[in-house]
Structures are given as structure tokens and as C-alpha cells.
Design a protein that fits this description.
The protein is α/β, with parallel strands linked by helices and 201 residues long. The protein has helices at residues 12-23, 45-55, 69-75, 80-89, 123-132, 154-161; strands at residues 2-4, 28-30, 37-41, 63-65, 76-77, 94-100, 114-118, 136-140, 167-170, 180-183, 190-193.
């Protein structure tokens, strides 16, 4: 199934269709402010495990997409200095590694108890999260060295993955640039991967 949603003005009925799939342990592919990504509800361990199987990912290679810094604070621990960095850079093309709180399901956590968190600058995931009432667990469709056309074109993404996901959200052409990955679990923020954004301190 493919559902068209325009990022400028997400259609409520279309968003409801997506949320209904996610509430029933579904896995979707959806647009972010960078690459298209697999996504499911943080509340569905079954769907989280499905994403790990599809992408051949370990738990600590998954990220959580939130709609506010307030909701990040329920899932991860950070101090005032880290809060200021989050506030200056989110929403935006960044994934921040933070120490996880006990509210993250074990299925989404690696041994380090660290979680990647982000708030994309895209109205589609924000509308989905708001209606779902839960963050999204996510993993990008493409790998670091996998810059091919199907990863940016939602119709081609649907052709490739329709047998393994429940839904593809067509939000227009995606990007090939990943997020900038920032480790904030130590004293100084460390950029582990350069991506779509320039970190502001």
C-alpha cells in the first residue's frame, strides 16, 4: 500500500490511515528531512523486531524519532548544556546519541543503553507521531554506500519493499544525505558522521 501525503499540509485522513497501520504492529517507510526511513511505533516490539530483520540491524543501530525535546526527555537523559545543543539544532537533520532512560523497550536498545534521537524538519512524521501518541523507531532505507535511485523515489521504494512493509508514505522525492550523527554520551559532543546539518553549539 502506498499513501500520498503532502509535507506542506498533511491530510488528516491519510495520516489516520498510516497511524492505524502502526497501531496494529505495522511497519512503514516514510520521508524525513533527509533519506526515506523504515518506521514503526515505539510501543510495538513486534514491529521493532521486524525492522531489525528487514535491515539486518542490531538494536543499537536504531533511532527514535520524536516530535519535541520534551518527549526526548522522557526517553533519554541529558544535562542543561546538552539541552541547549538539542534546542539549537532540532528540528533538523541530526541524530543525537544520548543515554537512554528505562522507558525505551529493550528491543530498541543495545548493550550500551544509548539511543539515537531526532526530530526531523518535516511535517509528515510530526503529524504521524502526534496522532499516534508515541515516538517512531526508525532506520534509514539506505546504507552509507548505497546511493541509488530507489532510495529517493517513493514509487521505486514501494516496488522494492512492498512485500516486506505494510505501507509506504509518498511524501515526494527524498534526499540521499544522511543525518549528522552526534555522540553526546561523553563530556564533549563528538561528530561521528558528517551529514545534512552543521552543528551549532
Amino acid at each position: 500500500m502506498i499513501v500520498k501525503i503532502y509535507p506542506q499540509n498533511p491530510n488528516q485522513k491519510a495520516v489516520e490511515k498510516v497511524v492505524n497501520v502502526l497501531q496494529n504492529d505495522g511497519v512503514m517507510i516514510y520521508p524525513t528531512d533527509g533519506v526515506y526511513a523504515f518506521g514503526c511505533s515505539l510501543n510495538s516490539v513486534k514491529a521493532i523486531n521486524k525492522i531489525k530483520a528487514i535491515r539486518n540491524k542490531k538494536s543499537d543501530e536504531l533511532s527514535v524519532v520524536c516530535d519535541s525535546i520534551s518527549s526526548i526527555s522522557e526517553l533519554a537523559r541529558f544535562d542543561n548544556t546538552q539541552f541547549k545543543i538539542l534546542k539549537k539544532n532540532l528540528p533538523g537533520p541530526f541524530t543525537f546519541l544520548l543515554n537512554a532512560s528505562s522507558r525505551i523497550p529493550d528491543a530498541a536498545l543495545g548493550k550500551r543503553k544509548v539511543i539515537g534521537v531526532r526530530i526531523p524538519d518535516n511535517a509528515i512524521p510530526m503529524a504521524i507521531i502526534e496522532l499516534l501518541g508515541a515516538p517512531l523507531v526508525t532506520a534509514s532505507v539506505k546504507d552509507e554506500d548505497d546511493v541509488v535511485e530507489y532510495t529517493t523515489d517513493p514509487e521505486l521504494i514501494h516496488e522494492r519493499f512492498e512485500d516486506v512493509v505494510d505501507l509506504v508514505v509518498d511524501g515526494g522525492y527524498g534526499d540521499v544525505t544522511p543525518t549528522t550523527l552526534v555522540d553526546m554520551t561523553t563530556d564533549e559532543p563528538e561528530i561521528l558522521r558528517e551529514g545534512g546539518g552543521e552543528l551549532r553549539y
